[in-house]
Amino acid sequence: MPHTSDESKSNRFAEDFFDSGRHVPGTFERYSFAEYCQTFKPLTETIVKHFCPRRVLDVGCAKGSLVCAFRESGVEAFGVDISEYAISSAPMSLQSFLTVVDLDRNSLPFKNDFFDFVTFLGSIEYLRNHKHVIAELERVMVDDGSMFLTTLYRQPEGDIYRFNVHSKAFWLEEFERWSIPYVYYAFMGDYFQSSGRSKFILSRAKKLLFGKSRFTDAFFVFLWDIFTKLHILNYGVILLTLHKSKG
After folding, report:
1. Integer Cα distance of 75 and 112 in angstroms
2. Residue whose C-alpha is closest to residue 73's, from 97, 49, 89, 57
3. What is the pLDDT of residue 42?
4. DSSP string covering 128-154, please?
5. R_g of the chain computed on alpha carbons
6. How many angstroms separate the CA atoms of 140 and 72, rounded?
């Protein structure tokens, strides 16, 4: 496996990764802190209701939107990410809870048995050495801690960013090897939907069903905002397909 310098890896997850304005497989067109914070609220409310976490770590926190959503729910939350750009783009009031960490090789800046819940959403597939961060998570989590992990099970066409995409069977075997007692997981096809293609299909369907009018055009835009801009469809799928690997 070729060595990748800290600087080149950090640059890989810089502005072009989060805010390029283009649809590139494995990246964001635009990562709005406020929109994602709002998007994550149903997820954090579900976690708080069922797990009552005291202290949460978000692994691959990007601009800290999930950390924000947890803190707004009254949970002490922290985040780590390799991207200096993403963390520097977070609100100043949140940055003290976010740390730049290369998850492939750096130690997590927390003491042993510090967290009782970890979120690891759509990030493990970007790592070259996920065993390192798992060992670190085993160290910083309490003995009866829980993790909520989501990952891809197939590689999107043209994706050059995600090196660590494996089958469902592979990950299930991995979960059993970890000493983290409770791993809750959901497998996804592709988080980063091809918005242009989806929008084209929905637009054609609308025209076939309703013809063209101001009302139906406005209604279509409203539906599009609900299902893609707020990502309710993606996170609804996650909640419906959540499984538990142990216990």
Report:
1. 19
2. 49
3. 81
4. S-HHHHHHHHHHHEEEEEEEEEEEESS
5. 19
6. 23
Q: pLDDT: is 187 or 246 the higher one?
A: 187
Q: How many domains does the chain have?
A: 1
Asked whether residue 132 is assigned to any structural domain, the reply reads: yes
CA distance 83 to 15: 9
Say yes or no to pLDDT of 195 above 70.
no
Provide the residue range defining the domain that includes 148.
6-192+235-244
Which residues lie closer than 8 Å to 138 by C-beta, 6 or more apart? 178, 179, 180
- Contact present, 162 and 126 (Cβ < 8 Å): yes
Give the domain CATH number at 116.
3.40.50.150
Those residues whose C-beta lies under 8 Å from the C-beta of residue 96, and which sit 6 or more positions away, are none
Indicate whether this model's pTM tops 0.70.
Answer: yes
Q: Which pLDDT does position 128 carry in this prediction?
A: 93
The DSSP-derived string for 63-92 is TTHHHHHHHHTT-EEEEEES-HHHHHTS-H
CB 26 within 8 A of CB 162: yes
